[in-house]
Design a protein that fits this description.
The structure is a homodimer of 412-residue chains. Chain A is an alpha/beta fold and 412 residues long. Chain A has 2 domains: 8-201 and 336-411, Rossmann fold (3-Layer(aba) Sandwich); 240-317, no CATH class. Helices cover 40% and strands 15% of the residues of chain A. Chain A has 17 helices and 12 strands. The first copy, chain A, has helices at residues 17-27, 56-61, 75-85, 107-110, 133-140, 161-184, 194-204, 207-213, 248-257, 261-271, 278-283, 285-297, 301-310, 321-327, 376-382, 388-397, 403-411; strands spanning 8-12, 31-37, 66-70, 94-97, 118-123, 188-193, 229-234, 240-245, 315-317, 338-343, 347-352, 357-358. The first copy, chain A, has a 6-stranded parallel sheet, with helices on both faces. In chain A, strands 7-8-9 form a 3-stranded antiparallel sheet. A two-stranded antiparallel sheet of chain A has the order 10-11. In chain A, β10 and β11 (347-352) form a beta hairpin. The longest helix of chain A is centred in the middle third of the chain and has 24 residues, at 161-184. Chain A is elongated. Chains A and B meet through α1, α2, α5, α6 and β6 of A and α1, α2, α5, α6 and β6 of B. Chains A, B: One of its GO terms (molecular function) is isomerase activity. Chains A, B: Keywords: Isomerase. Chains A, B: This is 2-methylfumaryl-CoA isomerase.
């Protein structure tokens, strides 16, 4: 039995963080209902797209959820959403959102219909101002320390790292609040902001302390591993590899596998410092790299891959995403986390399930994202508790969207 | 009352992901006991360091935990660790680790002492090979799409994003397994790997589908927001800003605030495409940027900051980390998440608590990291259930480390 079986979460969201949170809960076994406006939410066309024009992003972020599309401008639509969010059930009454809707959809209003509601709201910043990953990151200085040494301009993350971290914290915050409700019977309003998640992380990593107590600012250091040794090298076959000497064991293994012992001893004698100290490896990284460079330049990856693996070194090749998908078994069905799925309008490719393997349950296979409005009737009947006549009336009024409309629209 | 009050988690860890997981649980109110070897774990000297040589990183990642240092090479030390991990308590028997120790510290052995143990293990990859953030990232292709357009070399993340995501997933995986135990009385072995977390995330973001179904590979795009419009501009005062036109509302707001309506209409007429379509904004981003550039080049940030804010635009300035810490109230005690703490050997700076605010409890203030071994006696007495004579014996044998030794060492 999957971990969260029986739990029902309602999600009103767009983009990365909160959709990822809902999807993670769905992949842990919860029933997750995502509601959208008629025609789809703000992220319904988010890139990357398939050749059909359908969003690969949306399909990736909403796997295994149930979908209902509702006209939230109408009083009937708003009433319906409130009813779904506050529907009865011991393991229901859990609402995840990053839509800031004051009035009918805020905690104060919804809690009147379900006093033990747990509502988790992710905002841009603590002031309620809009912020996205692409603005939080430069505001806190990460682009300033990203990129090649000496490069003048800031370099942004290609990965929406803060969104991904915040989404995961939404999951654990919801689970913590639900645990509290199980034990004490009380729901609550749970709030966090994307910028606070990033600001806290800077502190956790020691970067705030570093900025305050050290004069020298942290600077760009290219692909070097910060604070110890780790560097990329171009090999004779044109491939690039990353090698790591973070721990003492990794460092000694690297030195041994590249026959560098004598050169290292000479460098230590010359500088009067011990490379067993990770900070010395960091300070002398350019010298170390000069020693290692000829070794890698003279070799193909195939010449040392087996030796490195059997010596337990921590290393990897650099790939493009296309190469990784084509070559790396960890991104294929060889990895039980992945399943080839054929998805309407998207094509067939490996789709990931939950990275976590729980021994008390079978590994759950990934389930494709819904078509917009796909579960409308089911949700209206089973969650909102409406009868057939009421449901037909809502369709007739256009308060909910007929999934065949979504089908025809997305195929257009 | 904080969310996880009464829960006890034992952590055997190093570096980013699992220490972050334990710290997050501690900041949610759990009692988290981190054990280390005598002298400190692999991350005890991780950079950044304070001028004293003490690790700001370690202090950041272990806030609010209890610490015990044990000689794990001795049978007595191993017995002690097992006893702490499997100690009785309804809300105990939760073990988080990224140390792969076969035999005395694996699930199969520990579960014999506590059948309902929940053990969460983070590995490098699913094969059990060592991997770190710095190797997983290039293997999956993110550095290939990071950096300025046209830049040839891969650019690594300065932020250990995968570690941070994996650590958060360790938290929710532990909470999900603990919820399952509360309801069904069974513990379990919970495993995930850093590389699987990264591989799954690539899939969630649509990048795997993109690599399979589209011919054109995703490429570097500098600081542009992928798939819609968002770009950085250098202003007349030398400051750089990021502006976002991801949603239709953001785009229209940006066009209006920069008086760009006529130019946009002309560009649409010239290309025969509508910039209301986010994908068109992405494809025509260079043309849009050319239109916006003179506007920003001619202005100081102070000239438009208030207008942008009152129009609700999504934007920010670029800062260095030092500038952010010095200037941004969100990184100071103005933000209730932060508290100025004076920490021995480190100095005084703002320290973050949990980003999440639970309405059912007061915001918990951050608690500094322990000194290595600081809670040895308390843990031996209250968790391991030893009496004074037994505890004295362990100190005498050197099985546990006297915290005064840690103090004198760290002050050296």
């Amino acid at each position: 039995m999957s971990m969260l079986k029986g739990m029902r979460v309602v999600e009103g969201s767009a983009f990365v963080a909160v959709p990822l949170a809902g999807m993670t809960l769905a992949q842990m076994g919860a029933e997750v209902i995502r509601f959208d406006r008629i025609g789809g939410g703000l992220d319904s066309g988010r890139w990357p797209l398939a050749p059909s024009g359908k969003s690969l992003f949306w399909a990736g972020m909403n796997k295994g959820k149930k979908s209902i599309a509702v006209d939230m401008k109408s009083p009937e639509g708003r009433e319906l959403i409130s009813r779904i969010i506050t529907a009865p059930g011991d393991d229901a009454g859990l609402f995840l959102t990053n839509l800031r809707v004051r009035g009918w959809m805020d905690y104060e209003t919804l809690v009147q219909d379900r006093p033990d509601l747990v509502m988790v709201t992710l905002t841009g910043d603590r002031h309620g101002r809009p912020q996205v990953d692409y603005t939080v990151n430069p505001a806190l200085g990460i682009p300033d320390i990203t990129g090649p040494e000496g490069h003048e301009d800031p370099v942004a993350n290609a990965l929406p790292a803060w969104d991904l971290i915040a989404g995961n914290l939404c999951v654990s915050s919801l689970l913590a609040a639900e645990r509290h409700r199980l034990r004490h019977g009380v729901g609550q309003d749970v709030e966090l902001s994307l910028k606070d998640v990033a600001a806290a992380t800077l502190g956790h990593l020691g970067m705030i302390g570093d900025a305050v107590v050290n004069d020298a600012p942290r600077q760009k250091s290219g692909n070097a591993l910060y604070g110890a040794y780790g560097q990329d090298f171009l090999c004779a076959d044109g491939q690039r590899v990353m090698v790591i000497g973070l721990t003492d064991r990794q460092w000694r293994g690297l030195v041994q596998a590249t026959d560098l012992q004598e050169a290292v001893t000479a460098l230590e004698a010359q500088t009067g410092q011990s490379l067993r100290d990770e900070g010395v490896r960091w300070q002398l990284r350019h010298q170390i790299t000069s020693l290692l460079e000829p070794w890698f330049t003279a070799r193909h990856v195939a010449d040392f891959a087996e030796t490195f693996d059997s010596a337990g070194l921590t290393w990897s090749v650099f790939r493009t995403i296309k190469e990784a998908v084509a070559e790396d078994p960890d991104l294929s069905e060889d990895n039980p986390m992945f399943k080839m799925l054929s998805q309407p309008g998207l094509g067939t490719f490996p789709v990931p399930g939950l990275p976590t393997q729980f021994s008390a349950s079978e590994r759950a296979l990934p389930v494709r994202a819904p078509i917009l409005g796909e579960h409308t009737e089911e949700i209206l009947a089973e969650v909102a508790g409406l009868d057939g006549t009421e449901i037909a009336g809502l369709f007739d009024l256009g308060v909910v969207q007929d999934p065949s409309f979504a089908n025809s629209r997305s195929a257009a």
